[in-house]
């Protein structure tokens, strides 16, 4: 038997639209300044500034991918995709995390090379450009943090926060070089930023892969959910319990419930769904009742004598 409590589709679409607009605005701001920052970075010879521009360029790709995924995720279920396309946001999040990982590796390698062979850097140009970049990144981060919170948006925000830290590093590097002329600060700060971004990137990758492998959502404990279901009156036991995420914020559950009498199912089913909704915010459930073995009548052979 299958039971599914439907959400308010209009409200869901409204939040999805807000998230899409936030991502689109963030994309325009990021892409525009990435071009400016890359040009100044090449002219000034600043690796930190070039790294920040590289982050912003990958951010543009990430935000574009996130915006596209967000729009596709709003499509209703079809005969070909009966759960809809909600999980495409998770795929986009993993793709963006992998893109960020490649960026971190590239910048980290270049920073190591720059430490071996320091190059001249125009500190004043780096500072001025990085300050503007910091303001733009802060604006983009503000837009994203006030949109819909999904794994997809979090992955895009990871790129933006990387740029925000990169801008701060570029300002510090520019100031140090301007006042002291010590150029190794540029690649050193680039390595520090790479380390910070790497930590967040690994977390996004781990969470996204967990969803794609249909693992139990981190905020839920499978034994606790099963115990809560088994405590509903008339339920003898619960087995074949599975909990997984359909997409960001959408959790599904399937289970077999053992009862003393099948006639109790009409009371048990809504009671179990109420427990799952109130205590665990699980809306999409597939429940199958079974009769306890002690209550199954086994026909006895009849003697012909």
List the helices and strands and how they pair.
Elements: E1 2-4, H1 9-44, H2 47-73, H3 88-116, H4 123-145, H5 151-180, H6 185-212, H7 222-230, E2 235-247, E3 250-259, H8 265-280, E4 284-291
Parallel strand pairs: 3-4
Antiparallel strand pairs: 1-4, 2-3
Helix pairs in contact: 1-2, 1-4, 2-3, 2-5, 3-5, 3-6, 4-5, 5-6
Give an overview of the whole structure.
The protein has 305 residues and is α+β, with helices and mostly antiparallel strands. The protein has helices at residues 9-44, 47-73, 88-116, 123-145, 151-180, 185-212, 222-230, 265-280; strands at 2-4, 235-247, 250-259, 284-291. Strands 1-4-3-2 form a four-stranded mixed β-sheet. The radius of gyration is 27 Å and the shape is elongated. The two termini are 44 Å apart.
